[in-house]
């Protein structure tokens, strides 16, 4: 890790301002809707390509804030994540209302526009929910649930907190992408695996309390109610077309989430110590990226090595790790996401890096077959 930056500067709004860039996506969405035509592509062009270009010129940010900084110094960072749920909700349903009542948008334009809305609800909404679900205040956890329900992926909270963080890098974690596994095989596998593992994890917690899985203490009841509520609003606001557009943006949001999951841990596995025991999770078990602009957009999600090391650490305090402590991505998530959609190109770029990671950290492991095929014993 690099040196800690100057204390107390972090509490200023000016320091937090770059992380508020996500708000600019809302007016871009409305420009797309009002202008129509090729303007409906502005949102994916902005998030995928513009930030990739800015990354080139902005360079890296390898500085670290003091991890002991208290929440009282982080208000401006917390605020953007808390207010995003109502902003996103109003924007999404207002957009459904608008496009189902205007006559200048054709079918392909509405499809493109709500593909872009899915970019917002996935790249920003689910990402912010990920930050919020790790925190203790109830308001933040509720905002996380609301954001996930708008993407029809509420079970992600249970899967992420109860399965992924505990079993990352082992065969029991559905979202640890396996070596040589292309994204197009990974995506349908995790859609089923995450929902199943999330429900089993919640049922197991209830069983330890002597309660059945159908008990109302199971958050899946809340997940279902929130999702049905949002589907109902979409139908009331925009009829069957509005409902279809809502489902479209949700699918795109889920796709974005799982694309990021794929990138974050591709090919990285924890060492099996025997008898179902695995080494503790370390920074080396997540890909790290220090690209400045994409970390602004993604509220430091690319400092994923530290997030798994300290899951409840708030995003402005996440630490950057150098190549001696964590594997490094060659580009930020926007570029890596584009590359991942072409598996041969992805393997050409990433497989040599995975093999180098194995030589660096686990030179004593001679047979990687059980790790590649996820055939090691499940962790106890």
UniProtKB/TrEMBL annotation:
Q: Where are the transmembrane segments?
A: 20-41, 47-63, 75-99, 105-127, 228-255
State the family it belongs to.
Belongs to the fatty acid desaturase type 1 family. AlkB subfamily.
Fetch the InterPro entries from UniProt: AlkB/XylM, FA_desaturase_dom
The molecule here is called Alkane 1-monooxygenase
Q: Domain Fatty acid desaturase: where?
A: 108-336
Question: What is the membrane topology noted in the UniProt record heading this document?
Answer: Multi-pass membrane protein
Q: Where in the cell is it found?
A: Cell inner membrane
Q: Which UniProt keywords apply?
A: Cell inner membrane, Cell membrane, Iron, Membrane, Metal-binding, Monooxygenase, Oxidoreductase, Transmembrane, Transmembrane helix
The record lists the organism as Loktanella gaetbuli
Kindly give the Pfam families that the UniProt entry links to this protein.
Answer: FA_desaturase
Q: Which domain of life is it from?
A: Bacteria
User: Is this entry keyworded Membrane?
Assistant: yes
